[in-house]
Protein 1
Amino acid sequence: MLNAALAGEAGRIWLRIDDLDRARFREEYLEDIFRVVKLLGIKVTDGPSSPQDFHARWSQEHRMKNYLSALDQLRASGLLFACPCSRKELAAGRHQHGCLQGKVSLEAENVAWRINTRDLEPVLIPDLIAPEGFTVDLHAAMPDFVVRKKDGRPSYQPACVVDDVLFGINTVGRGQDLLPSTAAQAILSEMMGFGDLFQRIRFLHHPLITGEDGDKLSKSAGAEGVSGLGPAFKPEVLRATVNGWIGK
Ligand SMILES: [Zn+2]
């Protein structure tokens, strides 16, 4: 997956592109992000200026050490466990191999590192466009979420927390489909010792922009991105939509 997050303060806007998931990375998706940002007239002030600049300086591959040391912080939490279960086993409803009881070593080969979500309280996420905020039951939404994949690479959630902290991000806009991710990141930031810094981030979880068929736009579902939507999708339409979300 390739995500672009926009965050800013006092007119500064950071274009952030996540590329940890190399299996789903496509150069054309990367190029499309830059094309769309330009098309929408968004004035990015920080982060990569081009696909070439992204690869040279901003790819998450450059921050792998930071992610791995943050993952090490999770060992002391008591909630981290090693899980060799296959998707099929998990789909059957429960962990096998005694992983929840800590019977599998974190150092074993081909195990995912997961967070035990059973005893977590619901997470309240304040939001710039929802006065009462959003409450997420993480165990229902993302049970035992993965923080390190079986290949030893960090997952999206801890990497996102590290990047938020490293770059001093204070405002994040993302779709409401990512609310469980924000909840997971709030939990992880506490466990990694970044809780105070993460609490300073203001979130705006916006309704999803849908295609003509009412489904959310998704590259993996074949959407061509905003640039493929034609004249119905113009910068002024997007601005009006955003202003509607934030009540202006
Ligand atoms: Zn398991």
Protein 2
Amino acid sequence: MNCEVKAKDRIGTINPIFTCQPAGAQYASIGVKDCIGIVHGGQGCVMFVRLLISQHLKESFEIASSSVHEDGAVFGALDRVETAVDVLLSRYPHVKVVPIITTCSTEVIGDDVDGLITKLEEGLLAEKFADREVHLLPIHTPSFVGSMVSGYDVAVRDFVKKFARKGEPNGKINLITGWVNPGDVKELKHLLKEMDIEATVLFEIESFDSPLMPDGKAVSHGSTTVEDLQSTGSAIHTFALNRYEGAKAAQFLEKKLKVPSTIGPTPIGIRNTDALLRKLSAVTGKPIPESLVRERGIALDAIADVAHMFLADKKVAIYGNPDLVIGLAEFCLDLEMRPKLLLLGDDNSGYVDDPRIKALQDNVDYPMEIVTNADFWDLEDRVKNKGLELDLILGHSKGRFVSIDYNIPMVRVGFPTYDRAGIFRNPVVGYAGATWLAEQMANALFNDMEVKKNKEWLLNVW
Ligand code: SF4
């Protein structure tokens, strides 16, 4: 077999690709309107994650911490959550939703967050905030299992589980975008609008690309409301675009509230976007409009300009969130490129059964490695010591030093990307995303040709 899926063959991690589960829960929670999460753990479990998200989106927003100290780590720290909920609700009168996100320390202590929520609902909320609509929910994200990816998946499921109600069918679809950027949300909403499909877009973060208005106020907030979450049980269908970032919620809605679901495709590249539109059309009965056929044509034209001449046969390493990595690998193959190394930063045992990975194993006709539980040493070691030759790296900013140290051009994609301007604004999904990705990859290679004086004259005659 040309394409092998293997786990990292070392114990320990050198420069991780992912951070821990609570980070994913925090990213999901910022997509909910009037919501501020309390992360129950040490302050660093919020500070560094919030910084990462803030660096990535170049926006400010609130997440709270129960700020557990030594005494709490030994004797339990539920009293700090009680205080945190009280202070948060007193200080932020607009807040309606407070997820309490656990961490490694508070899961090890065994703090009974679920029990505390019942106590707070019957006590604090009923007595001090009786005139307020307030929803508390537990999200269990111990960091010693999974990764930020599974943390996002768990949080999305728990929000939906908390709020979804079965009602009269509302004729809408649920769209669970997965861990995406504001630019992706904008593009997905555009595709739905062109298809004339009404959708509840869940954990919607488009407004994190927020304007600076004349009155000086800039507000970044999630746009998915409590009502949106409640209505998910009355939808005609759920589309979870990412298998590892939203499928749990889709499965819950299907199993408990009989809302049928489709998992995937992650609409990266022309092929996957076509597949998504066909599925949307089949479920809703709405035809794919001429306007999208035209957009597809524009994307194909842009790709044709660069693919065969510049991208073909280029050797690529890709790392990051699994749906993104797999989608990018599929797109690269369509562009005649050669993804040589895919790095997935956690040990999810389901990757080997992913039909998209099986398809890569069946179809790739050159040596490709897929490494799970991978870290950046898996990339650097292969480049530095094992003769892996690369023309391009696709991944987030944490891998930039491999690119810098070994002079390999890189396109920033995924989370977090803080060392290039405006990455969050551009979609990687849909036809617009396919165009953007192909052109970014081509431009990175052009720049490299000039810097290394490697056939840069070609660009004069292109
Ligand atoms: S690994 Fe544990 S202590 Fe560290 S940030 Fe994650 S949850 Fe907090």
